[in-house]
TrEMBL record:
InterPro entries: PCMT (IPR000682), SAM-dependent_MTases_sf (IPR029063). It is an enzyme of class 2 (transferase). It comes from Gimesia maris. This is Protein-L-isoaspartate O-methyltransferase. It catalyses: [protein]-L-isoaspartate + S-adenosyl-L-methionine = [protein]-L-isoaspartate alpha-methyl ester + S-adenosyl-L-homocysteine. Its EC number is 2.1.1.77. Catalyzes the methyl esterification of L-isoaspartyl residues in peptides and proteins that result from spontaneous decomposition of normal L-aspartyl and L-asparaginyl residues. It plays a role in the repair and/or degradation of damaged proteins. The gene is pcm_1.
Length: 229
């Protein structure tokens, strides 16, 4: 009984911290899409980080996860989701599953989410976690994410959580008419900026959305110096 009581209290604390994070770090930084804010409010980020990091789950920062990787800061996840302009009926491809947190948020914003993780152990953990938490419209794959996912294309939105020097060609051919690609482009030396590419009448238009810092996109169409062995 004592353990259950402590668990409920802990959950209440996380809910309060989550709402504070939304008000102080998302709304104040111009994340205003009500669907995105609602999705962030519903996803328990503390479930996507190691136990020793749970007390930091609602700090607006990246946190370490297994395999020497990180979970993105909530602002970055919210920004990319808002930039994708999802209405609820889309099929989305996410590149870089990590802990599964971003996919969980996307699952509340789109009809179906396909997410690719290149590290098998992380992909397995994320798939188990997402299933356990009830995100049944998320499908996890262990692949080279720079190749996209031909078998599930076309996609209404493609969200890439690592930076490339240029837009990988497979994403362009796997995008549906009217679809959006959200991706950081650039390098640490030249600087990285978030881009939104939109396919209209068979042609891609691009918008620069701001400066960000991401790890390199690894794979056949990723950074030339970061191809996997």
């Amino acid at each position: 009984m004592s353990s259950n009581s402590e668990s409920v209290q802990s959950d209440d604390n996380f809910i309060s911290a989550r709402q504070t994070m939304i008000e102080q770090h998302l709304r104040q930084r111009e994340i205003t899409d009500p669907r995105v804010l609602e999705a962030i409010a519903r996803v328990p980020r503390e479930q996507f980080v190691p136990p020793e990091s749970q007390r930091f789950a609602y700090n607006d920062c990246a946190l370490p996860i297994d395999c020497h990787q990180t979970i993105s800061q909530p602002y970055t996840v919210a920004f990319m989701c808002a930039a994708a302009q999802l209405t609820g009926n889309e099929v989305v491809l996410e590149i870089g599953t990590g802990s599964g947190y971003g996919a969980a948020v996307l699952s509340l914003l789109a009809r179906e989410v396909h997410t690719i993780e290149r590290i098998p152990a992380l992909a397995s953990q994320a798939a188990e976690r997402l299933q356990r938490l009830g995100y049944d419209n998320v499908h996890v794959y262990t692949e080279d994410g720079t190749l996209g996912l031909t078998q599930a294309a076309p996609f209404d939105a493609i969200i890439v959580t690592a930076s490339s020097e240029e837009l990988p060609e497979p994403y362009q051919v796997q995008l549906s008419e009217g679809g959006r690609i959200i991706i950081p482009l650039g390098s640490e030396s030249t600087g990285q900026r978030m881009y939104r590419f939109t396919l209209n009448n068979g042609k891609l238009s691009e918008e620069v959305l701001g400066a960000f810092v991401f790890v390199p996109l690894i794979g056949k169409y990723g950074h030339p110096s970061d191809h996997p062995e």
